[in-house]
Amino acid sequence: MDGSTIVARNEDGYAPINPIKYIVHEAKKQTNAVFKSVTTGVEVPLPDEAYHYTATPQADQSDGMWEESGINQYNVGMSSAETTATNARVLGYDPLVHDGIDEEAMLTLVLPYVKTAKEGAARLGKLLEKYGTGECNSIAFNDQNDVWLLETAGGHHWAAMRLPEDTYAIVPNQTVIQEVDADDTDNFLVASDLVEFVEKHHLNPDPESFNFREIFGTQSEADAYYNTPRTWYGQKLFNPEIDQEPTAQDMPMTRKPAKKLAIEDVERFLQSHYNGTKFDPFGTFASGTEKEQRQYRSIAMDRNQCSSILQIRNDVDSDHAGVQWIAMGFFAYSPYVPFFTNANDTPEDYKNTTADVSVDNVYWLEKTLSVLIEPKYHEYSDIIHAYLDGCQSYARQRVEQADEGVDAAKDVTQYLTDNNLQTAKEISSRTHKLFDTLVKKGLNLSKTTWEKGQNL
């Protein structure tokens, strides 16, 4: 609605617990620096200058940083990565490698060294070709003009696509890029030997086109129940006029939404759990059978860790154009807090995430709330939604106030840092009050409650 480009992601773990923190890396000079992965052992020489950037790494970095999402000083956003799959036929000719660049290293190796979204896709692609990867992933980039999506294929191949103007794409742990024109370098980037690789090994089922999804992706039964329903629901929200089945394998990658989208629309999707349908695991207004409620993999779920909306705005000056909206915990209950990324620090309760449970940091506070809320979701629903709406309105006010005052600031970076701290402090305060309210309400909902004067 305001001309922004947006990349948004939900980070899910393989289990409900994977503590995350939000940090800032300052720009630095680093002559002869080399990155070495603690998981694969790969060593990658680094450029001499690293740019300022934000990141959402794991609190425990014994198996890598896993920085996942952030925006750098040139207002380039990066989301890395979203796990996908390459089909077995392709893997027969280009197997995954286990001493290359995996998800845990991608953002660290790319975001501090690029000035545009396209440069981000190109740098990552070159690294994948040279060092290989042991995983299949999709990685998204945005700047003030463009959104690019890169998808890996096998150990060394990849393609990247610039999203058409005024469109959105939903990428649900599945290869989604469709038609690729390797000659159109304004809109596509590909591995240097991608076309020849496909021709040599007879991988294209339809030689009249070059459909990346059909050539490299999977269209399995698992996709139909784990992945495509999330695309179906997102397209149902943004294009309600379209009739599709949740398990359809032919849903288009991009669509033009029925109306322009705002941050709140993106949040609604990222926080959703098939709301209003019979597939809602919370069994709300359109409740289905127990089997139907568990039929499809929900978007908001207990494995949620950290959600980021990377917004690069075009209606303000570049020194405060980048905003990273962050929610932690179980996103159905967690507010999105806006952080201007031109900042030199993050709030203590966002960067002090511990391995053990502590409501003194936001990650564990939100995770603890989900333990309280889920068993009594319907009893708490009105309270939760009033809290989320109030936090979102407050967040909007804070962004507006910061925009209005930035021209008078002597030090813009410090001004925005202070603004971030104030915004986060207020929302954290509201979250602690919610915690207090829910604990007290929960105690009064106990099945063992015995009313005074109740007959024996």
TrEMBL record:
High-level lineage: Bacteria, Bacillati, Bacillota, Bacilli, Lactobacillales
One GO-annotated biological process of the protein: proteolysis
Enzymatic reactions: an L-aminoacyl-L-amino acid + H2O = 2 an L-alpha-amino acid
Keywords: Dipeptidase, Hydrolase, Protease
Signal sequence annotation: none
Pfam family, one: Peptidase_C69
MF term (GO), any: cysteine-type exopeptidase activity
Class of enzymatic activity (EC top level): hydrolase
PANTHER family: LD30995P, SECERNIN
Protein name per UniProt: Dipeptidase
Family: Belongs to the peptidase C69 family.
EC number, UniProt record: 3.4.-.-
Organism annotation: Companilactobacillus versmoldensis DSM 14857 = KCTC 3814
InterPro entries, A to Z: C69_dipept_A-like, Peptidase_C69
Keyword match Hydrolase: yes
